[in-house]
Structures are given as structure tokens and as C-alpha cells.
Amino acid sequence: MTQAQYDKLCEICLEEINEIHSALTETISVISKIMKNHAPSAVQNQIDDIALINSSFNNMARIMDSLCDSGYLIVPTRHDFLTIYTVI
Predict the structure, then answer these.
(1) Is 71 left (phi over 0), alpha (psi -120 to 50) or beta?
(2) Of 4, 27, 35, 36, which sits most exposed with the smallest number of CB within 10 A?
């Protein structure tokens, strides 16, 4: 993808990108609060980073799963393809 194509994609998807960012920010905040109440003191200073990593992986997996279920994202079945195709 060229820089111009990437920029256009971001422009087209700006509203969705902002919605996902907002949801991730809220999720990370909730995860941090919960973990601060239950995590051992030895990892208290790492909780925000742990929440960020956990939330990012889980939410991206949910988003990809939802895109696959709706048919917008297609995972190739042939092993000679090294990408995932999406319809925008």
C-alpha cells in the first residue's frame, strides 16, 4: 500500500478509527481499575502497561472476529497467501 493509499484509507475510516480508539481507551481504564484492586503489590507499577497490552490484543481479536463473521474480512484458506483480505 502506498502512503497516498494509506492516507485515503485512514480518511475513509476516520469515524470508525475514532470510535475504536474511544472504546479501547475506556476498556483500558476499566481494566486498570480492576487490576489495581486485585493485583499483587509487586506488579502495581506495571498495571497500566499490562492493561494496555491485554486490551489491545483482546479487542483486536474481537474486531477481527466480528469482521470475519460479517463477511467484511476474509482469511485466505490457501497457504501461499501471506495476508488477510478485507473489503472496505
Answers:
(1) left
(2) 4
SS (H, E, C) the chain: CCHHHHHHHHHHCHHHHHHHHHHHHHHHHHHHHHHHHHCCHHHHHHHHHHHHHHHHHHHHHHHHHHHHHHCCEECCCCCCCCCCEECC
Please, what is the angle between helix 47-70 and helix 14-38, to 10°?
140
Ranges under pLDDT 70 in the chain: 55-59, 75-88
Report the alpha-carbon distance of residue 79 to residue 83 in Å, rounded: 10
Number of separate domains in the chain: 1
Structural domain for 26, as ranges = 3-86
Q: Note whether 31 and 48 are within 8 A (CB).
A: no
Kindly report the pTM of this predicted structure.
Answer: 0.50
